[in-house]
Amino acid sequence: MKKKIALLVYPEFSLQEIGNTIALFRWYFESKTVVLSSSKDFVKSEEGVIIQPEKTLDEFDVNDYDCLILPGISDIRESLNDHKLIDFLRGLKKYPDFVIGAICGGPIFLSMAGLLDDKKFTNQLYVEMNERLPFIKDENIQYKPIVVDGNIVTAVADAYADFPIAIARLLGYECPDSAYKPCTDFDESEEKYKYHMDEEGIKIFEEVFKDFL
Q1: Measuring CA to CA, which residue among 114, 18, 117, 1 is closest to residue 72?
Q2: Which of 48, 52, 81, 161 is most buried, judged by most C-beta within 10 A?
Q3: Residues 51, 109, 1, CA angle at the centre, nearest 5°?
């Protein structure tokens, strides 16, 4: 494993939908996220959070990453006209084993680049959009929370907690069903929420924070 995942961002991308993904890979598998975009200009998410990409698409090397993640998007119009973005994705056809995950509206870019022409997939576009946009292979759509076909994972927005698990397993990681999923059965016991260091952790803490102790 390269221990790096690539996150492709574009105007109005959804930070919330991929928060679990980048957290899971960071804390379960020690894989850092590298943010990519068409340029290094600031990109504002649909939540209003401003991100500065670390690398441009021209600087991307598929051999440096374990996978590529496409977040959802609240307004696709600007990015559908981003020819650099679509050309970049089209170039990934040469790497049929490279894992790609796209959630909510993100799969529309994979469709436009031809990466879903022979794949089963899902997305969160309106049915009427799927039927009318000529580059979307409507016959390949499965209206399910998550669809995995070959090297590509697609998901709807509500599957944001299951999406990273599917990607991790496709990469060969063992990943529990409960990883980064919302708590639905709260245990009121205080002991459950007390977190303890081991002896080595205590030594490191005392050394790093010695000026404050």
Answers
A1: 18
A2: 161
A3: 70
Backbone angles phi, psi at 102, to 5 degrees: -140, 135
Pairing of strands 32-37, 43-44: unpaired
- Digit-by-digit pLDDT tens for the chain (213 residues) are 899 999 999 999 999 999 999 999 999 999 999 999 999 999 999 999 999 999 999 999 999 999 999 999 998 888 888 999 999 999 999 999 999 999 999 999 999 999 999 999 999 999 999 999 999 999 999 999 999 999 999 999 999 999 999 999 999 999 999 888 877 766 677 887 788 999 999 999 999 999 999
For 27, how many CA atoms within 13 A lie in the half-sphere containing its CB?
10
| Structural tokens at position 59 | 């600087």
Q: How far apart are CA 107 and CA 170, in angstroms?
A: 17
User: d(Cα 40, Cα 31) in Å, to the nearest integer?
Assistant: 22
**Buried-state track 61-93, b at ≥16 Cβ within 10 A, e below 16:** eeeebbbbbbbbbeebeebbebeebbebbeebe
The beta-carbon contacts of 158-161 under 8 Å, at least 24 apart in sequence, are 159/103, 160/16, 160/17, 160/18, 160/19, 160/20, 160/21, 160/103, 161/20
DSSP assignment, residue 76? -
| 82 vs 113: CA distance, rounded Å | 11
Q: Which pTM does this prediction carry? A: 0.92
